Amino acid sequence: MADINAYEGSREGGFEAGFGDYVALLKPRVMSLVVFTALVGLWIAPQPVNPFVGFCAVLFIALGGGASGALNMWYDADIDAVMKRTAGRPVPAGRVSSQEALALGIALSGLSVMMLGLAANWFAAGFLAFTIFFYAVVYTIWLKRSTPQNIVIGGAAGAFPPMIGWACATGGIGLESLLMFALVFFWTPPHFWALALFMKDDYSKAGVPMLTVTHGRKATRAHIFAYTLVLAPFAIWLGFTSVGGPLYLAVAVVLNALFIAGGWRILRRNEEQAQADGYLVEKRYFRLSLYYTFLHFLALLVQHWVGAW
Questions:
Q1: What is the superkingdom listed in this entry's lineage (predicted)?
Q2: Residue 8 pLDDT > 60, yes or no?
Q3: 169-196: buried (b, 16+ CB within 10 Å) or exposed (e) per residue?
Q4: Do residue 101 and residue 133 come from a single domain?
Q5: pTM for the whole thing?
Q6: Which CATH number does the domain housing residue 128 bear?
């Protein structure tokens, strides 16, 4: 990691960290998806869980997700400072020191894993520990700066939470949890590549080898469309398992049809067309991707309630 001592100087200029700055270290927007998918994985599992135990389990999974975010911000402070999208984060902005971010990340990692083991089971706790390690070390420290496959492989970290939630209830892994993992895993690359299409300069300046930087935007467009085709069968397959049903299937078919159609429109465009309309199609696809995963998991939750009723 590049030396980030330069970012500490601004704290001496009178900036004091507030509670909101420490919350921002936990990446609350990312953590909200982690919490929701973990909650759904726990809720729809075949073994019922005591509501209080379930609440504690989701809380500790959320803390583990926040720990990953803090460790990511600690290590990535140098490239965050270069990118417009991330320059205002607490560490590069100088409101929180890198040492504080590291200490918070380590403390929350240990606390979340230990408490999840006590609240639920040690298999789920071990799974959470592996997820934190995967995001902080495998993705942040290794993959992100070394390969254009960073998002592809690193996306596994964001796909583990529903499996952890399922493991909290069952103590193991099932086909349904694997398909929930696949849903998030194959969604992650096109989601971030669509963002990279209209944020390429940020990644280039920071030296992050995103696909747009290493292989160009034409190749990125082809990859986005290919992943939408790979993603759809897993999303729909989930509807034929014990956690699926007609309501979920209807939602999955509509969303994946829209996702594939959006990927096709991106594939057919060239840079001249994209620049002419300010990357309108790419931005719409990215906006759709923000709702894609949430609506799938919401459909699973509603399907479960309908089935129970």
A1: Bacteria
A2: no
A3: bbeeebebbbbbbbbbbbbbbbbbbbbb
A4: yes
A5: 0.90
A6: 1.10.357.140
Query: What are the residues whose beta carbons fall under 8 Å from the beta carbon of 85, sequence distance 6 or more?
Result: 199, 202
Specify the number of domains making up the chain: 2
Residues 6+ away with beta carbon under 8 Å from 117: 124, 125, 126
Domain end marker among 137, 158, 173:
173
In order of 155, 156, 176, the CA distances from 152 in angstroms are 5, 8, 21
Q: Are residues 273 and 200 in the same domain?
A: yes
Q: Residue 67 belongs to what domain range?
A: 18-173
Write out pLDDT tens, residues 72-93. Answer: 999 999 998 888 878 888 999 8
CA 249 from centroid of its chain's CA atoms:
23
Residues 232 and 274 in one domain: yes
Q: How far is Cα 263 from Cα 194, in angstroms, rounded to an integer?
A: 9
Which candidate, 64, 48, 172, 52, places its Cα nearest to that of 112?
64
Q: Angle at CA 177, nearest 5°, toward 167 and 136?
A: 70
Q: What is the pLDDT of residues 141-165, one digit of tens each?
A: 999 989 988 888 888 999 999 999 9
186 in the same domain as 153: no
Structural domain contains residue 164: yes
| CA 262 – CA 258 distance, rounded (Å) | 6
Q: Identify the weakest region by mean pLDDT among 123-132, 193-202, 213-222.
A: 193-202
Residues 165 and 200 in one domain: no
Q: Report the C-alpha gap between 298 and 34 in whole angstroms.
A: 13
**Domain-ending residue, one of 143, 173, 203:** 173
